[in-house]
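Materials and Methods. Structural model of N-acetylmuramoyl-L-alanine amidase. The 276-residue sequence of N-acetylmuramoyl-L-alanine amidase from Kosakonia oryzendophytica was retrieved and submitted for structure prediction as follows.
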Amino acid sequence: MNRRWLLLLALLLVGCVSEKGIIDKDGYQLDTRRQAQAAYPRVKVLVIHYTADDFDVSLATLTDKQVSSHYLIPANPPMHGGKPRIWQLVPETDLAWHAGVSFWRGATRINDTSIGIELENRGWQNTAQGKQFTPFAPAQINALIPLVKDIIKRYDIAPQNVVAHADIAPQRKDDPGPLFPWRALAAKGIGAWPDASRVAFYLNGRSPYEAVDTASLLDLLARYGYDVKPQMTPAQQKRVIMAFQMHFRPELWNGVADAGSLAIAEALLEKYGQAG
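The predicted structure was written out as tokens:
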């Protein structure tokens, strides 16, 4: 190759370098040098589930054609190189079918805007004392924490949008249930939690178990983000309150409107704002 061609090649290469932001495709070019400001991540919500089955059955179910989730964490994750192994079943760029018919803070079709994490856990069993939920293994929660922190950071997910499956589908779901450590995770910067001092302020000396008007509590829950409809039956209203209590007042999740639940809802609204 003579010097003339070498010089031409060098000029072409310089031209390529100077065309930063121009991407060659098969049959066309993309100019990415001017990016719109009104661009937002697809992912706004992180949903936590339990599988209600063992790992092998859960993995088979979540890789079948009916349902899916982005991640599956075993009850006791195997360690590799000192790190717990987590199964990614769906790329984050793709939609997974984990939320189903759902609603949160004014939005429906939560599958479209969320990442789902399934935790291997037996869920609940009926006993003489009622529903008894299965505890989560510390190793599983320890594996969950860095994954969730990474997702929250990458998509800038607001604390109030880290939710339980029961939060977004209270009429159908209980997971991850009252034994999931929401409070401990909030202390690590994961998810929402009310400030105890503000709960006490709104409680104003009342017993937390003092009965309050159901409609007043449901109004606060609707403002915070739960799906509350005027035509709901008493049983449906109870399911919404129960979902809220399992998340934010897990020591008593009987679905009864009381002063403690009302104070927690008021403190959450003060801290995180209302939906919309």
